[in-house]
Amino acid sequence: MGAARRHQTISAEIAREAKEHQTIGAEIAREVLPNISADVMDVTETETGFAIRVDAPGIDEKDLEVRATPRSLCITGKRQESSDQKEETTIYSERRSKHIFRVQLPAETDPDTVHATVSDGLVEIKLLKVGLSKKVPLAKAAAV
């Protein structure tokens, strides 16, 4: 077998292995992370903290929970499932009744200063970074 043919065979084998690993990775992700959808969450970082926006349509405020640790955030929500009796059989559905969003933060934050709001299915969370230096105003000392 010539060098060009051997190179072509090896390239085809590598492509086949990569595709197989990609498929296996996607299957694992679907099993391990079935409730996470990356297209409904934005995480932005500023000099002083993080802002997170999560789309959670159909989930009531009372069914949402936000938990913060210094390096992560977990948002859970449960959408009320309709109990309509239908005669047809559902073959496939993309809707999920429970949503879990986890964010690993690249800097430490203060869980006690988390501010979260929800409006029209949009959850907005603001977290402040810890360990930032801040300018301290100086006052003139009283004469003794």
CATH level-3 fold name of the largest domain = Immunoglobulin-like
% residues in beta strands: 25-35%
List the domain count as a whole number. Answer: 2
CATH architecture of the largest domain: Sandwich
Tell me what the structure shows.
This protein is an alpha+beta fold. The chain has 2 domains: about 1-30; about 35-80 and about 95-130, Immunoglobulin-like (Sandwich), CATH 2.60.40.790. It is built from 1 helix and 7 strands; from the N terminus they run H-E-E-E-E-E-E-E. It has one helix spanning about 5-30, and strands spanning about 40-45, 50-55, 65-70, 70-80, 100-105, 115-120, 120-130. The strands form 2 sheets. It has a 4-stranded antiparallel sheet, with no helix packed on it. Strands 3-4-5 form a 3-stranded antiparallel sheet, with no helix packed on it. Strand 1 (about 40-45) and strand 2 form a beta hairpin. The protein is flat and about 95 Å long. The N and C termini lie far apart (about 95 Å). Mean pLDDT is about 75; it is low at about 25-40.
